[in-house]
């Protein structure tokens, strides 16, 4: 990574709005009441609308539609609410990018985040941190598209021609998309472990110390790409071998069913929040 090239772009990185930072503080407060959270949410019409849409989407919804923020908070639960507010903050903080299919981008991002969250429960990683890392892991792609759309187009063309994406980014820009995504996470004051997870997402074993978050991202991408091509009876052994190869010791009991049930949920959530 060319640190000078990357650091020269720091001032162009988006900032988390103060209102979002305050909202994150409230939903991360274990002592906060439903009423407190609902009141705070109600002050942000955009996120309030997203919370209601998500509470009523097929994955979280029930036969009766909820129409109030209080009901939505109760239905979703604190963990889901925390991740939703974070995801909404990220989606709202990054500028719109011409040439990027945001519905597809965020749908895939949520798929990776949900797989990472589920697998994290089985290998000693905090599930919320794995989800957060999944939400942020490709943010560098959007930042490059926002900062330099011409370069983003060149990168897309190079990948279509079979070139290695990150090698081409480094050749063109002096840094690659995980570099700038990790810098954003650092500026937003996420944990060093999460920053390392983003930075080493394509080569987790290069991280010192070893990054389980990065390894989970690698594994989640394999699940997204190849899951439907593997016979059901072979999925557990396939996943176990991949986890070991990525450096993870993972409990496999029931994981095949969980991941199968999650297929497509991320795309549904992304659509609800777009």
From TrEMBL:
InterPro entries membership: HDOD, RNase_Y/CdgJ
Pfam families: HDOD
The protein's name in its UniProt record: HDOD domain-containing protein
Positions of the HDOD domain: 13-204
Source organism per UniProt: Shewanella cutis
Family annotation (PROSITE patterns): HDOD
């Amino acid at each position: 990574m060319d640190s000078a090239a990357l650091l020269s772009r720091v001032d162009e990185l988006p900032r988390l709005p103060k209102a979002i930072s305050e909202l994150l503080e409230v939903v991360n407060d274990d002592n906060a009441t439903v009423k407190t959270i609902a009141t705070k949410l109600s002050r942000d019409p955009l996120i309030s609308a997203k919370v209601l849409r998500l509470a009523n989407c097929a994955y979280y919804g029930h036969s009766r539609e909820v129409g109030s923020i209080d009901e939505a908070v109760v239905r979703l639960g604190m963990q889901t609410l925390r991740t939703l507010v974070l995801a909404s903050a990220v989606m709202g903080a990054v500028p719109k990018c011409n040439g990027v299919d945001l519905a597809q981008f965020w749908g895939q991002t949520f798929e990776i985040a949900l797989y990472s969250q589920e697998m994290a429960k089985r290998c000693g990683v905090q599930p919320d941190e794995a989800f957060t890392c999944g939400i942020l892991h490709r943010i560098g792609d959007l930042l490059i598209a926002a900062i330099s759309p011409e370069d983003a187009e060149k990168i897309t063309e190079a990948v279509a021609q079979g070139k290695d994406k990150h090698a081409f980014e480094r050749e063109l820009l002096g840094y690659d998309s995980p570099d700038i995504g990790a810098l954003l996470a650092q500026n937003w004051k996420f944990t060093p472990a999460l920053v390392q997870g983003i930075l080493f997402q394509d080569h987790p074993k290069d991280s010192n110390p070893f990054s389980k978050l990065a390894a989970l991202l690698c594994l989640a991408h394999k699940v997204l790409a190849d899951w439907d091509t593997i016979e059901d009876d072979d999925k557990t052994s396939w996943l176990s071998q991949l986890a070991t190869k990525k450096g993870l010791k993972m409990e496999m009991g029931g994981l095949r069913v969980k991941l199968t049930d999650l297929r497509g949920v991320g795309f549904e959530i992304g659509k609800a929040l777009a």
